[in-house]
Amino acid sequence: MSALPLDPTEHRSGPLLDHLARRMRLRAESVLAPLGLRPRHLVALTVLRAGGGTSQQALATTLEMDSTNIVGLLNDLEARDLVERRRSPQDRRRHVVELTEDGAKRLNEAECALASAEDEVLGALEPAERETLYELLRRAATTTPISCGEALIGEPDAC
Amino acid sequence: MSALPLDPTEHRSGPLLDHLARRMRLRAESVLAPLGLRPRHLVALTVLRAGGGTSQQALATTLEMDSTNIVGLLNDLEARDLVERRRSPQDRRRHVVELTEDGAKRLNEAECALASAEDEVLGALEPAERETLYELLRRAATTTPISCGEALIGEPDAC
DNA sequence: AGGATCGTCTGTGTAGCGCCAACTATTTAT
DNA sequence: ATAAATAGTTGGCGCTACACAGACGATCCT
Questions:
Q1: Best to test chain A binding among B65, B137, B142 (most A CBs inside 10 Å)
Q2: Minimum distance, in Å, between the CA of residue B137 and any CA atom of chain A
Q3: What is the percentage of chain A residues whose pLDDT exceeds 90?
Q4: Residue A75, CB, less than 7 Å from strand D?
Q5: CA dist list (Å): A25 to B17, B67, B105, B154
Q6: CA distances to A114, A118, A122 from B147, in Å
């Protein structure tokens, strides 16, 4: 079509994302096992750290998982005191899920433990590039996960 | 430790990768259905396009999947003429797996179809940033997947 | 009081995938 | 030439992650 060498073919990162996530997850699984965590738990913890206190269904929306399965996931995390369920004062049906201090600490430990896995999978990238990658992923993941009004329970001013 | 604001906390992209891959995969699933493809097929096709002719076990190593499951995956793709299994002349036990023209075309179509999914998931990133992301992912995924000697069947000089 | 909503529990079904075992065709080593 | 290793295939078993549906109590909104 055009003489410009701008976009010769469609560049979709979906499959690459999938591929790398799998490679990472396989390594993470074994590295995380001694900590009693699975990759899936880390995703939840990461989202919770980023999102502050959210209701369970908000979490379900963010993680795009069925809410019934969120229950089990949170049970795991709460049993290990990594996460806390408090009833919302505004709406006592709701559980406000929040990372505990232990949770934040454990998440940090896990992230340290993941370094080796990341070294293997992202070995082709230099440190600066990895940081760029991280920043892009983080920003993409922090895309006002839910309609904003329901997600931010504690900060009604943010919107 | 240091006063520099360089690395206050560990930055692991593993969980983010996992999260975004999931979000992408869910959308891809429905978008790809009319094309008779699943996300997993796209990963394989993408790897094949990047890697040229590889043996099945090389593919298994790259995708980090059990080789018995590779068989079924390739059966799917070959049944749709997206992929071709030829016996290697050098070692007639081997199947050299290669993308057909139809396969390349179909992969391109699929990538176009994925645009909407990507728009939703990577909506927070500008086009230039998405391209950067793609490039980083692509390079990370192209990390001499196998020990190099076994992977490159057709090009024995490359190493 | 009545209806909707949030979370929980239970159960069912399915898909992805690892693992084991057996078998064939072929290559390599002895 | 015979034995051992390797590539692919098939079949089966089992586990895990999930989605989905139904029922229930607690709570909110009218």
A1: B137
A2: 6
A3: 80
A4: no
A5: 9, 19, 30, 31
A6: 23, 19, 16
Using CA atoms, how far apart are residues A140 and A79, in angstroms rounded to an integer?
A: 30
pLDDT at position A6, please?
45
User: Nearest-CA distance from B71 to chain A in Å?
Assistant: 18
Report pTM. Answer: 0.85
**Range in A44-58, A63-77, A135-149 the model is least confident about:** A135-149
Give me the mean pLDDT over the A92-102 stretch.
Answer: 94
Distance from CA(B77) to C1'(D2), angstroms, rounded: 39
**pLDDT at position B51:** 84
Res A151: pLDDT: 38
**Residues of chain A with C-beta less than 8 angstroms from the C-beta of B140:** 16, 20, 121-125, 133
